[in-house]
Amino acid sequence: MTATSYEPQAFPRPRRTHDPAWALHWGIWLLVVALIVGPFVPLLYASLRDRPLYEAGGVLTVQPYRQLFGDSAFWDAWGNTLMFASLTTLMAVLGGALIAILVTRTDLVGRKTLGRLTLLPILLPSLGMVLGWLVIWGPGGYLTAMFSDRLHLPTLAIDTIPGMAVVEATRLLPIAFLTCQAALSRADSSLEDAARSAGARPVRVLSSITIPMLRPALLNAATLIFTLSIAALGIPLLLGTSNNIVFVSSYLYNTWTNASTPDPGSVSAGAVMMLLVATALLVLRNRLLGAEARFVSVGGKSGRQALLRLRKWRWPLAGLLSFYLVFTTLVPVLGLALMSFVVVLTPLVPPWELLTSAHWNVLLDDETFRRSIENSAIIAVVGAVGTTAFVALATLVAHRSGFRFRRTLPFLMLYPRATPGIIIGIGFFWAYLLTGAFGDYMRGSIWGIMLAFCVRNLPLAYIVMYPTLARIGEELDRAGRAAGAGWWRTSRSIVLPLLKPAIFASFILMFVEIINDYDPAVFLVKPGTEVMGATMLAQFIQGAVGPVSALAMVQVAITVVVLSIGAKLFKIGVTGGDHGA
Amino acid sequence: MPEIHVENLVKEFGDQRALDDVSFEVREGELFTLLGPSGCGKSTTLMSIAGFQHPESGRIAVGDETFVDAARRIAVPAEQRNLGIVFQSYAVWPHMTVFENLAFPLKVRKLKRAAIRTRVREVLELVEMLQYEQRYPHQLSGGQQQRVALARALVYSPTILLLDEPFSNLDAKLRERARAWVKELQRTLGLTTIFVTHDQDEALSMSDRVAVMSAGEIQQIGTPEEIYRHPANRFVAEFVGRVNLIEGLVSANEGGGVLVDVTGSPLHLSVRDGAGASGSITIAVRPEAVTVLRLDDNSSNGTNTWEADVETVAFLGDHYEYEVNAGSVALTVQSSRRVEGDRIKVHIPPDACALVE
Fold this sequence. Notes:
The complex is a heterodimer of chains A (581) and B (357). Helices cover 71% and strands 0% of the residues of chain A. Chain A has 581 residues and is mostly helical. With 357 residues, chain B is α+β, with helices and mostly antiparallel strands. Chain B is built from 8 helices and 21 strands. Chain B has a 6-stranded mixed beta sheet with strand order 7-8-9-3-10-11, sandwiched between helices. In chain B, α2 crosses α3 and α2 packs parallel to α4 (142-154). The mean pLDDT of chain B is 89. Classes of the chains: A mainly alpha (581), B alpha+beta (357).
């Protein structure tokens, strides 16, 4: 030990109070409750009244429910929806698990790249992709016409329930893929090694050890995919209309838009019913997640796993997977691109003879289209910044504070994930109607739509941030507190800087999700507050397929560019592993 | 430097009682150790003092400042307790340089830049880390990170110092050096310190006094020697060091001690400890306190010298370890002497026997 000049010194004690922690905790919690529970209270109320909320008088009644349940079309819609959701879930889960096993546990050619590309569909604009499918494989679609009319081959009938399920499954498959991939890379490879030592051959190990261990992940993914596919709105509106296939979401949409009396209570009743189903599924899923923990093997060391050798199947399987990806991702996007540049898309005339820039000119000239792009861009930037900042703080309160009600926050923040977007839209519609000047302002501006989008997507921000936060040792903030910094100072100087990668990832993800979102907006848009997704839906129904395709291409382009920038700048692997959680 | 009072702490996690009426006092300038197996409540006690756990009842005071008084609903926030703490993981902030790590507590205390600079360098010099001040934690070894953590806990002159298993992440060689170093630093600075560990060697070699904990209760408080030589109960005897436990019945009181009939055997044991004891008792004898003799060696005879069969002898470098059976009594004996033969004599000195039950 060296001789030292260290002397105990009387430093000023850290000042008492003035740490806004107490106010911050309560403020954030109240805001979370207001934003997430808030919209559903007026919805429930609206479903139990004999006239719209904005009309004076009115009595409590179950009439809206009676009216709804008396409509056989509503029950038909439920039948269609459940059939569609079951098929979607089945295909997405099986496909996702299969691809996950292929790219994490075998020596498939190009498995890393293929794995990354598999994630793309969930990030691409969903409405645009449905449109892409429609122009290629729809009843009058490009390839449908080519195959069935010219070659007399059967084609995908995507205007039927199984066909619609295929389209939805390709979008949701990445969720199953991510969940299984996470489970597979978390699993302790020594469990598999043990089976091999016991004499099992690789394929046997796969079937007896690896796949059974995936069971909880599969169940978990299945519940989420089922919940999400129940809420699908774009698919029944774009693909189902020609065959008169109606889902619950499109039933509510049609009832609302075609109603003789505005804002019928039966729509709110239907929305409440959907909400109940979604909530039940969320609770079920929470149970399953608890069960999954039992299957998590301790001390898994990834990267050491011996890969199953596919031998002569290495190339063919990679080819098959590439074909799937081209077929489900590239072809619809190409279809959209082509559609946006031709007068009509038909195999009878070569597309280059039908070239036109008219659709793109519409985007620039038409007030509605131009405003939609501007509004969406503003909403996406402001919304992504706001949501990310808010969720970062709320996550800290939930997991790094002594706040009394902190344990309610994770459930609250995950709740909108299970809620159909159309219901969030109706909820906010009623909430704005009931909140006086504030509500009027929100209804008349793009901020009302932005808030609905933000609430709808904030679970994803939480899902991105929480795992990173959990990896930041709690002793790091305790050290800050012991050093004399209050909760807010510790959060600001220590925890938030360490959370930076997740904060950037969340921003990118929020931007992409918000710019592509549409269903919460369908009941909120007004002239002047249009956003891209809602405009696409409205214009498509009016038949403007070309300009809508061009608009969808704008979404696709923005998404791809922003994602690549995000991946480059912040090394954000979309393989975060928890997107689907 | 002030003393620490901990009175009647009770902490429950669900229906599990983590702390059950824990009380102790730490004297000024003392290094006081909480020793026990994992889950015994030692870390919970430390974190209650630091302000990261909130006991349901009890009182904690440092000097004349009350930190916790559950009855009066006092709980000073962690950041206002002004104590230094070194965590098991060191918790050196990875996004700050060594200098910034040390400067942070001073910035919070609103010191001027120049004053921060002087003080940080002064303390870095104390822990011999001055040349690393611009490094980031990931560029440092475990031992160096620990020094930074300690320096950060000292830089603002805390009232007391808390050490939460600070050596458990170091390898064996480094650990011994770090122990000696920390002990000396603590003594030089005269800082009242509470140290938490599950490692008995660490506790015995560093502490002024030790509190042995188990199942949320304090079993014994004493100097390392008292704890080792006169364990208060069976748990302490077994947890601190190795021990032979001999059960018996008190047959007579004799001049400041007792004579014991060993249970299930014709042997007797004269014990200096436990005057006034009666009934059935348990006696603890450390393996190295027992001496081994050749069968024909008559230098020691009498009640406490027993004949025994040798089961195994293991050579452990600096000593031999014997497993022997004296009738039905199995004993472990450590001795530097090698005594040949399948049957030997063992001698248990009366003052090496501690009454534990």
